[in-house]
Amino acid sequence: MYEPNVVGDWQEYEGHAGLRVRVHRLEPAEPPRGRDDAAEGLTYFRVRVTVENRGARQVTVHLEDGQIDVRIGPDGESAFLDWRNSQFIEGFDVYPLRRATAVLYAAGPEASLDQVDVQVQLRVDEEWADRRLWAGGLGLPGGECGTSPGTAREEGLAHQVSAFLRDQAEEGTA
């Protein structure tokens, strides 16, 4: 298994030249068509998955229910996925230098949303691409995850990566 990406990172697919995917905009959001009764007492959030074609030919992309898995909290429990409000990519032709975005609405206990893992398995031209994982969390402005600068809390890979990048950025600006 590859190292997980941090939410916001692009991941290129080696078997499909020029094709890359990004999980981004992990943010609190209410669903547009109203809350599902099964999500009573849970906190909703939205995540976007963008597929970009930087290759020379058009590809047909499928990113439907069952191809995106969202896990929350330190135990990796499944988030409630609101399929009715989510928008998927169903057999869309992505031409060179174009993008297509899926918008997924999910919910979970607020205490578990500081650690969110999103796994994506893209289907391109009827071929399954490798699964990829993005790690992030809710709770800080901009959908970032992590701790305040200078602290080292062991809260998972996403928090460690975020803290490391933040520390590196601070060193470069001094």
Characterise this structure.
The protein is mostly beta strands and 174 residues long. It contains one helix and 14 strands, in the order ββββββββββββββα. It has one helix at 157-173, and strands at residues 5-6, 10-12, 19-28, 43-53, 59-63, 68-72, 77-78, 80-81, 89-94, 98-108, 116-120, 123-124, 127-128, 132-136. The longest helix is centred in the C-terminal third of the chain and has 17 residues, at 157-173. The protein is globular and about 45 Å long. The model is unreliable at 140-154 (pLDDT under 50).
Topology of this structure?
Blueprint: E1 5-6, E2 10-12, E3 19-28, E4 43-53, E5 59-63, E6 68-72, E7 77-78, E8 80-81, E9 89-94, E10 98-108, E11 116-120, E12 123-124, E13 127-128, E14 132-136, H1 157-173
Parallel strand pairs: 1-14
Antiparallel strand pairs: 2-3, 3-4, 4-10, 5-9, 5-12, 6-7, 6-11, 8-10, 11-14, 12-13
